[in-house]
Amino acid sequence: MDAARPRGWLIALAHGGQLRAMALTRAGQIRDAEADARLAFDYKLPVTPAPAMLYALNFLLDALVELDEPEAAEAALASAGIGDPPAGVFGAPMVLQSRARLRLAQHRPADAHADLIEAAARWDELGCCHPVLASWRVEAAEALALLGDGHGARKLASEQLDLANLAQRGGLRLIARRARDELLAAGARPRRDMLTGPEALTPAEHRIAALAAAGHTNREIAEQLYITLRTVETHLTHAFQKLQITTRAQLADSMTTAGT
């Protein structure tokens, strides 16, 4: 954006603005996020086709909802004039989720739920089930709880937790914790984090155990990862305890069984 602004590269400035708005919203810097998203939206609205404009609209809606400015968010929706977002477009379910968050802020849970069910169908058509991007279950659980459907809310929260547990095994612990918080808010009792087995290993333990399982010595691991020999030994000790093994040969078998 710093390079684009003095050169008048408006499309680059708009692209940078919408992406920075996404980051700033998640960082809690909402005023700055709204300014960036507004820049992107105002530029793209008259000159780009709807599929490209939807991204800027999505980030602008999220920022305005977080600012507690539902009237401004509704005005942005009206100016976009999209109605039902076009089919087969990646930005469409993102906008539907953002519009649902706006509807929840407007105390319209039924409308929010309708948007989220439509978003779910769009994500399914696109083959996307990532629990962060396709996050419709989080707001849908909230909408159902507000509508008095506790059973449905718990079901969706449980599904989100299952997806987040897959994410946790890959190291995405933030989304796993958020899903667990949503499940608790819905009145369920999620299971605790894994304390034993391959899934219980920290990223550092997993990395070192995998190298050890591949036949590297402790000294080779220390040299490869630029850490001390003592650090390698400590992580391997913890890995052995969590995997409930006592020998290096068992370590190799355990890591193979875990599909790593």
Question: Proportion of β residues?
Answer: under 5%
- Mean pLDDT metric: 86
Rg over alpha carbons: 23 Å
Number of helices: 14
**Order of helical and strand elements:** HHHHHHHHHHHHHH
Largest sheet: none
The percent of residues in helical segments reads: over 70%
- Oligomeric description of these chains: single chain
Provide the number of structural domains.
Answer: 3
Number of E-state strands:
0
Distance between the termini: 40 Å
Structural class of the helix and strand makeup? Answer: mainly alpha
Tell me the overall shape.
globular
Low-confidence stretches: none
What secondary-structure arrangement, pairings included, does this model have?
Layout: H1 4-7, H2 10-26, H3 30-47, H4 50-66, H5 70-80, H6 91-105, H7 109-126, H8 136-146, H9 150-169, H10 173-185, H11 203-213, H12 218-225, H13 229-243, H14 248-257
TL;DR?
The protein is mainly α. The protein has helices at 4-7, 10-26, 30-47, 50-66, 70-80, 91-105, 109-126, 136-146, 150-169, 173-185, 203-213, 218-225, 229-243, 248-257.
Describe this structure in words.
There is one protein chain. The chain has 260 residues and is mostly helical. It has three domains: 1-83; 109-193; 198-257, Orthogonal Bundle (Arc Repressor Mutant, subunit A). It has 14 helices and no strands. α2 (10-26) packs parallel to α4 (50-66) and α7 packs antiparallel against α8 (136-146).
